[in-house]
Amino acid sequence: MAAQSPSAPVRISETFARAKREGRTAFMPxxxxxxxxxxxxxxxxxxxSETGVDLIEVGxxxxxxxxxxPVIQASYTRSLSRRITLDAIFAAFGSLDxxxxxxxxxxxxxxxxMRRGVERFLADAAxxxxxxxxxxxxxxxxxxxxxxxxxxxxxxxIQLIAPTTDRARVPSILKSCSGFVYCxxxxxxxxxxESVADELIQQLRWLKSQTELPLAAGFGISRxxxxxxxxxxxxxxxxxxxxxxxxxxxxxxxxxxxxxSVGQFSGEMVAACAR
Amino acid sequence: MAVASTSPAxxxxxxxxxxxxxxxxxxxxxxxxxxxxxxxxxxxxxxxDPTFQQTLDGLLKTFVGRPNPLYFAERLTQRCGGAQIWLxxxxxxxxxxxxxxxxxxxxxxTLRMGKPRVIAETGAGQHGVATAVAxxxxxxxxxxxxxxxxxxxQKLNVFNMRTMGAEVRSVTSGSRTLxxxxxxxxxxxxxxxxxxxxIIGSVVGPHPFPMIVRDFQSVIGREARAQxxxxxxxxxxxxxxxxxxxxxxxxxxxxxxxDEGVTLTGIEAGGRGPNPGxxxxxxxxxxxxxxxGSYSYVLQDADGQTMDVHSISAGLDxxxxxxxxxxxxxxxxxxxxxILDHEALEAFHLLARSEGxxxxxxxxxxxxxxxxxxxxxxxDEAIVVCLSGRGDKDVYEVARLSGQxx
Lengths: 275, 406
Fold this sequence. Notes:
heterodimer; A: TIM Barrel; 8-stranded parallel barrel; B: 6-stranded mixed β-sheet
């Protein structure tokens, strides 16, 4: 599935390959573009990269995100209240110095892609340095064309698999998936949970037998100790709400303190993933 | 008004993927696919089951009070001096609006699936009340999501829902209105699907919701069509209904879709005028896009963010519209236009004085259009208007706008 492009697809697979060689679980934090502002987002991307994260997932703020939990929706609302536009987001990422940065994956509602035009959105994302794309409200049954267009733009299209996903449907989901498979840890929305469900572990084990693609577990993972349970069964872990919650306090606080708090947490997660 | 005609609209939609022409489908997270597949399968089975239809018909008769009349508005007709105006009296249903046609049907589906819990969203509270009523009737646990702002404005409906045992959950995210109540209901469903059914209030959302709600609401049009044949000896010349999400209008129009001689007209909320944020006229001013899991016309900004909407009517101020309406619009089968806040208010007063009927402010939009259309037609012609609900809920707002105190 390799599109010969200077940007992404290659780098997501390379990222996972390197983590595997080094005996680590890949750590993939999520932040919202524009929360607290785009300058802050740029600083967070740099700081997270410095702590050794393997990939950064960047949420594009959307007014009606049914796939996300309250912490991330609130973050989107904060970003949109500053009138952050897609043009501004693409410009902010496009002008980043790529040296030493972790690969970036955009997470955006299909509503945003449709309005901008799918091909234009994909081209802009590739141009801005994104390696792949997650469209949480684009089910596999609707994804064929987008998958093809994403590859033409040099982007991976990452698909989601839920604990409730019928195993009979999994092959059709994997058919339009590249980069990695995003395995949802809980049936439900993003947020922090007490423990990692056995169901997830069992599903990851089964998925391993179905695909060569790396498996990343997300939704509900928030603590270093969650990582230990997933060792050997997941190739990567995604952490969203636990980081975004630290951005909530950005209003009024010195941003350096927020950066330090996120950086420290990220460092702990990276260390837990390397154990 | 000129409408572009492409291929003729059929009643044989949606297909198995939920497509009404290019519209509809499912744009939802993978976490919802299981629930939607399960609901689709259960609904298909229910449709084949004569007992299900008999039970539903029995409840519509004895509990809802159907069939409701098709009423000739004689004095209103005389005032216009044109076509006859007939009113389909959904306001006479139990709970005073059409919403209950759908909630009774969906509550029966919930029972079939063996699920003890129901969730719903509501804006002004009409669908919330109709859901609470159905859940009380069948002993189902009921949680209604309602925007914080709407809870404050609709105290009476909130009190009624709670009295019937429903839990009303305040939604404080995003815009704190109907839009976000829908978002919260979907979120609840993602983690509760095993014991919960989502009774959505309009012909919106991912497949199979637009089809299920249309089917349950189609009792309006089926009755109106048969009653027209009986009262007029023929079909009406024009059928009119208001369109927010589009449930009363979808139910009214659907049985007439293949009656080519019948003009179908959907009336959106024109609000204060055509500027963005001043109206809720999705089909008149919107563009194609995705909202709440389906592809339809929507009111979005250039980036795809949902825009704020306004209407005097809390039941019409939704920034999207059911995908079947988008299909009918593009096929040229239904014409859509809008009525301003003040025109609806005038129609509200006119119907009250000339017929002794207090219409819902939503339905007043359809009445206002019918008054204009009747004047353009001859006395031999007939217009049927869906009077989707009664106006008791609106009297505080109407009084406030006319500078009175209740």
